[in-house]
């Protein structure tokens, strides 16, 4: 594993000045950069979270070998290394529960605090590749109304709340994640009573709002799964097929001077601009990509869409 050790040593040297300058407490350390080592490693304070990817090409890593390497070469305590084997996930399965210890700790991201859980789910409670997007949304949120769809644990909502958004509606299908979002609000001293947390399928929620025009928003955040099924919906959702309808529904409840932040990690995604009810679309993928994701082989596409 000498090649892997040398790569991660070089990576840490590259990241160190940026981490020190920005006081970053959670970051992506490794992400499939070496073809023969198919895994992701993220650091949260003094803890290491590893996801080993399913591979048909012969993945040269195992839980034991990675734990030993990160302990001996990089000083992580063995009881602070969390390893999960991850298959291709779709829809709700990407948030599948794998434990029930509810052992959370707090990390600071640009002055915003978030609860992290490395034990109970495949994901941790905070998508690090959205760090710069959250910062950008926060800066634009003062005295604005914000709708956060597919909100997960509400990290975008926290940034908006800390910057003084007038109203935030946080929508997710999971009670667990909505409660987690509320905990993040409380952790950041954001008054819960000023804002709404809605347990509902975000696609149906948006359809109903578009139909009845119950409320309009200055900022709408849309970060949908690549694919999802729901008992409350007649058909499945596929990002390639359905993103136009989703975005157009959002445009119908967007205030005239507002914008939609739309993001997806579907590798083959291509925004169908010709069918969107907008002539003001900006690709902000590079502007919202974090430094620790610059050489990631997997890109998250992001767009700012206005009327």
CATH superfamily of the largest domain: Vaccinia Virus protein VP39
Number of domains: 2
- The secondary-structure element order is HEEEHEEEHEHEHEHEEEHEEE
Ends apart, CA distance between termini: 52 Å
Rg over C-alpha atoms, rounded to the nearest angstrom: 20 Å
Strand order of the largest sheet: 9-8-7-10-13-15-14
Largest sheet entry: 7 strands, mixed
Note the total helix count: 7
Rounded average pLDDT: 92
Helix content: 25-40%
**What is the level 1 CATH name of the largest domain?**
Alpha Beta
Outline the low-pLDDT stretches. Answer: 90-95
CATH topology of the largest domain, what is it called?
Answer: Rossmann fold
CATH architecture of the largest domain: 3-Layer(aba) Sandwich
Residue share in β-strands: 25-35%
Q: Give the tally of β-strands.
A: 15
Principal-axes shape call: globular
Sum up the structure in keywords.
307 residues, alpha/beta, Transcription Regulator spoIIAA, 2 domains, 29% helix, 26% strand
How would you describe this structure to a colleague?
- This protein has 307 residues and is of the alpha/beta class.
- It folds into two domains: 2-88, Transcription Regulator spoIIAA (2-Layer Sandwich), CATH 3.30.750.80; 129-306, Vaccinia Virus protein VP39 (Rossmann fold).
- Helices cover 29% and strands 26% of the residues.
- The chain has helices at residues 2-22, 63-74, 131-139, 155-162, 175-187, 202-212, 239-252, and strands at 26-31, 39-44, 47-53, 81-86, 105-109, 112-116, 145-149, 167-172, 196-199, 217-222, 227-228, 237-238, 254-264, 280-283, 301-306.
- The strands form four sheets. The chain has a seven-stranded mixed β-sheet with strand order 9-8-7-10-13-15-14, sandwiched between helices. It has a four-stranded mixed β-sheet with strand order 1-2-3-4, with helices on one face. A two-stranded antiparallel ribbon has the order 5-6.
- Mean pLDDT is 92; it is low at 90-95.
């Amino acid at each position: 594993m000498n090649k892997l050790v040398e790569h991660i040593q070089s990576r840490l040297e590259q990241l160190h000045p940026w981490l020190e300058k920005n006081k970053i407490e959670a970051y992506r350390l490794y992400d499939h950069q070496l073809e023969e080592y198919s895994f992701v490693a993220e650091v949260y304070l003094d803890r290491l979270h590893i996801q080993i990817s399913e591979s048909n090409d012969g993945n040269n890593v195992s839980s034991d070998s990675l734990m030993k390497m990160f302990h001996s070469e990089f000083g992580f305590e063995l009881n602070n290394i969390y390893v999960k084997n991850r298959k291709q996930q779709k829809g709700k399965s990407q948030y599948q529960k794998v434990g029930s210890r509810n052992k959370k700790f707090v990390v600071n991201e640009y002055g915003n605090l978030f609860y992290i859980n490395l034990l109970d789910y495949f994901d941790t409670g905070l998508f690090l590749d959205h760090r710069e997007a959250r910062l950008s949304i926060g800066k634009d949120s003062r005295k604005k109304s914000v709708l956060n769809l597919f909100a997960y644990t509400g990290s975008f909502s926290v940034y908006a709340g800390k910057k003084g958004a007038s109203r935030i509606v946080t929508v997710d299908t999971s009670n667990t994640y909505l409660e987690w979002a509320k905990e993040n609000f409380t952790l950041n001293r954001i008054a819960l009573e000023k804002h709404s947390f809605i347990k509902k399928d975000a696609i149906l929620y948006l359809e109903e709002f578009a139909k009845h025009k119950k409320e309009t928003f200055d900022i709408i955040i849309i970060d949908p799964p690549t694919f999802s099924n729901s008992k409350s919906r007649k058909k499945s959702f596929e990002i390639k097929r359905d993103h136009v309808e989703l975005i157009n529904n959002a445009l119908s409840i967007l205030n005239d001077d507002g914008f939609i932040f739309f993001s997806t990690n579907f590798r083959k995604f291509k925004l169908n601009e010709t069918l969107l009810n907008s002539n003001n679309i900006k690709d902000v993928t590079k502007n919202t990509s974090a430094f620790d994701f610059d050489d990631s082989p997997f890109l998250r596409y992001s767009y700012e869409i206005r009327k």
